[in-house]
């Protein structure tokens, strides 16, 4: 490589890119705002699909490690009505193409696969600017800078690298979710544990939904979705957990108590996640020396594809660079030509699902 590869963001996509480059003998540096791998919880379960996420892990040479962290039985799915009656149920017989893993464990195997020092922790990016001839300068919050000949923004929804390529910004989708957890559910919340089953459960009505899954052991992780403007949520005092959960639970009045317990009996303070998305079909004209992957490139409302697409983006970008190590612009052109429709297809699929549900 005539120039170093600088990756901003140590999420699943950025780490997959670094790993694939490493397998091809191409060094890369990943700059991450968090202070360490354990600086914050890494979210819940991810279903890793055999048509994108698993292809990325295969390209990264990590399928054996991946199989070692799969949680058996978690592909089981139950669909309930608000009264708790089962509308549909699918068992996990081990043949499904979407095995579930803990996001933190998946990130760990990616981190463990990289040479020491690849990730520079505590490097929060404050901005970036073009220097000409495909070179860019990245500035960090502590005042430090780095100049690179190949810059990859893998830094998520609010990417600091995206403005180099596009003026697009994420917009609120009209829906937010509130996260809750129930610990030791089999003994402390048996009715709710039974409703969730061995994998996940979902209950949908217009503008309201509850989705929950069983994580490691008998921990239940729930996502309570409400279609409301942002000021509706701004009026809630999330510092007062009891008042907030009581207010949210009122929106589910009449639902089965084993479902609403996922709101009212939470063992952790409720956490608000406002959902944002980039314009459908978001793309940009080729800019020398810089590109994006994952949510930085094609942020969409949650549809089960985000992490999978980010990893596939990373793997495909890594392979494109390895195929054209002396012609980075050819590599980036090839990568973006495939990545743009891939992201647009996932967003279109979500729109179709929503319209059919309505």
UniProtKB/TrEMBL annotation:
One of its GO terms (cellular component) is cytoplasm. Keywords: Cytoplasm, FAD, Flavoprotein, Monooxygenase, NADP, Nucleotide-binding, Oxidoreductase. InterPro entries: FAD-bd, FAD/NAD-bd_sf, TetX_monooxygenase. It is an enzyme of class 1 (oxidoreductase). NADPH binds at residue 40. Monomer. This is Flavin-dependent monooxygenase. The lineage of its organism: Bacteria, Bacillati, Actinomycetota, Actinomycetes, Kitasatosporales.
